[in-house]
Amino acid sequence: MKSYLELKVPIRYVDSWFTELRELLDGVNVRWQRDYYHITMVFLDYAPDNVNLVPGLSERLEDALAPTITFDRLDAFATGGGHKQVIHLTTSHVPEDFLALVQDIRRYMKGKGCDIQSDFRLHVTLGRVQDPRTNLRQIKEAISQVDLPDITLDLSNVEYRVFRGKTLGQWRLVQ
Q1: Which end of the chain has the smaller Cβ count within 10 Å, N or C?
Q2: Distances from the Cα of 49 to the Cαs of 46, 113, 156, in angstroms?
Q3: Are 44 and 57 in contact (CB under 8 A)?
Q4: Rounded to whole angstroms, how far apart are CA atoms 42 and 163?
């Protein structure tokens, strides 16, 4: 079963910087994310059916501190095959305590027999470029023109979900 643990990020599709980004990429085939923004702390390609991960996640998350993250960069990266690009919001400084929490959760899940193929990359997906005529350099040039204000957020809502399915657990980090 594919599943993931996400930290919700309350940005809005109608924010002025996001509107500016979409306008700069008008004419490029981008599938924009709408109203469901998050940081994927861990994506499980496989979790054993006989293992309930929720108690261990609760143990790690119930007393965890909510990170304060300042999003100050727009960027893009190519997906595994390099045929698509992901446009995302990120930070120049990942809080050490948040990174330690993510690493602890990932170790726990691997220890329970879960298959995690991707490394952690703090990013909030804004859109996926579907246009084979557009390369990563062109995307990065366009997004560098956006006037992105520093966006400082306290992030406290965590959800564990089946990929494209139901919620398995929810937590609110300590603020």
Answers
A1: C
A2: 9, 10, 28
A3: no
A4: 12
Residues 154 and 175 sit within 8 Å (Cβ to Cβ): yes
Residue-wise pLDDT tens digits, 39-65: 999 999 999 989 999 999 999 999 999
Alpha carbon of residue 152 to chain centroid: 16
Q: Compute the half-sphere exposure of residue 45: CA atoms within 13 Å on the CB side of its CA.
A: 5
Q: Are 25 and 133 in contact (CB under 8 A)?
A: no
- Over its C-alpha atoms, the chain yields an Rg (Å, rounded) of 17
Q: Are the C-beta atoms of 38 and 7 separated by less than 8 Å?
A: yes
Which amino acid is located at 39 in the chain? I
pTM: 0.94
Residue 62 tokens read as 């119930």
The pLDDT tens digits for 139-156 are 999 999 999 999 999 999
Of 35, 45, 41, 24, the residue nearest 169 (C-alpha): 41
Six token digits for residue 161: 């979900």
How many Å apart are CA 100 and CA 106, to the nearest integer? 10
